[in-house]
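Example 3.2
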Amino acid sequence: MNDLIDRFLNFLTVEKGLSPNTLSAYGRDLTNYADYLEGQCHLSGAAEIQQTHVIEYLTFLQKKKAISPRSRARVLSSIRGFHRFLVKENLLIVDPSALIETPKIYQPLPKLLSQSEVESLLTAPQGSGPAVQRDRAMLEVLYATGMRVSELVNLKLSDIKADVGCITTLGKGAKQRLIPLGEVALEFLLDYLHEGRLILKKDNKIDFVFLNRHGLNMSRQGFWKNLRAYALKASISKPVYPHILRHSFATHLLENGADLRSVQSMLGHADISTTQIYTHVLQERLKKIHTQFHPRG
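Structure, written as tokens:
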């Protein structure tokens, strides 16, 4: 089984170009799956796996490991991908996972900041100095583009297309997309590049846009720490984390009339159903406004 898992992971690396984090998750899921089949079901090879074995394993995860429906759905997705690969490679005749239903997942609505809270957060970095310039630029760019924090901290100088007011970024699955930056965010970004970054980079020859005090690439953890500090300074009581600005970006665009396909493109979602969660957020907000302000609400 382990040799087959290695072949599958190599296929995902070469053919699908999945990220190291995704490959690690696949490998972990499938290794645990193989260990269970060998240890509990006493199977010696993939050809012996039946649908009942897959169901038994998912039931084990639910009852013995208390794994959530979302996590079990992810595990089943890994198992399905593995078995489909084996069938495609003529290493299996039938996919034992093909007819198993995916666990139903309750998808909570994403948290977000109001437009006034975003404004308070963006203006929280006050004063002068390269770190303040960097932090203001990072916040402005994150909200202006809806980027993931990993995309933000890995942004390189060559990704900035200042002449057209856009940036390019590599998202999940190494898919490149072009995102408008907006005049305000572009102004703060250029100020940082022309002043603060020159100080922070010291003598380092580095292509990353956002640098720490050592002149190296700003980490996700470092940005998150700064973000929490600015949220406190802005007197925002709710938990603030990088992805909340991505949620806010999408919802505020829809609130102001953007179409769903455009938001999908800017977020880099492969499936529009992923983007549609923000229409549910918008509907909930409209219901609350109606209840609060309508005389018969």
